[in-house]
């Protein structure tokens, strides 16, 4: 069965198909008279419709561009909705109190960041996040160590283990200080060395604690924490860093107040997401 739009074609559409001439349109041809003939023609020559549409779009590519943009926007909206549903599903894991964090534990809103110390985009975002922490003392900031580059640059995993150890030993304030200091070195994408990490770690950990970091590569609380973060990132469908989840800490948050940003972003966008999460 033909689409309704084709079973009763407009005069303009008939002209597009070449069934009637433009002079006929100008003369005011009665569509009631040409309708049955046109319907029969289209039914017997369906290929002509495709040819005519293809020719028209070739002459007017702006319609293809507009259609592509609309499709991209719809895909982005659908992806964001899917991310929000995942954030709601894994709310407890995202807001876990066993993860490094600063800010009030019972804050109205939380910003969750997945990152890698060797990720250049994470490094660029670090000062932005530092500014957000200072500007939002009533918000909880949660740091999910996600060393996705550890297979390429083992120092990435080492830095993540040190960070987790500092959190366990000293809490959020010193963890954040370490976090910002490591990014402040500007050494990313393999430029960071083990010596850099251990030299900085010596300001926060004892020799025994640093020795424990080496063992944490295969077992222990630090190892388990990193494995939990990796599993959570996979559940959230995050394949890269950085990635952000900004959401209320309420038991049943309004989905409209949840924002997920799977990639680098701006400080202003995150600030707007924080305000939305606070309600």
Could you characterize what this model shows?
The protein is an alpha+beta fold and 279 residues long. Helices cover 59% and strands 9% of the residues. The chain is built from 14 helices and five strands. Helix 9 runs antiparallel to helix 10. The two termini are 51 Å apart. The N terminus is likely disordered.
Q: Would you identify the regions where 5 or more consecutive residues have pLDDT less than 50? A: 1-8
* CA-based shape: elongated
Number of strands: 5
What is the end-to-end distance?
Answer: 51 Å
Report the β-strand fraction as a percent range. Answer: 5-15%
The largest sheet has its strands arranged as 1-3-2-4-5
Mean of all residue-level pLDDT scores = 85
Largest sheet: 5 strands, mixed
Layout: helices, strands, pairs:
Layout: H1 4-7, H2 11-17, H3 22-26, H4 31-44, H5 46-59, H6 62-89, H7 91-94, E1 101-102, E2 109-115, H8 120-135, E3 140-145, H9 155-170, H10 172-184, H11 194-201, H12 207-215, H13 220-235, E4 243-248, E5 259-261, H14 267-278
Parallel strand pairs: 2-3
Antiparallel strand pairs: 1-3, 2-4, 4-5
Helix pairs in contact: 4-5, 9-10, 9-12, 9-13
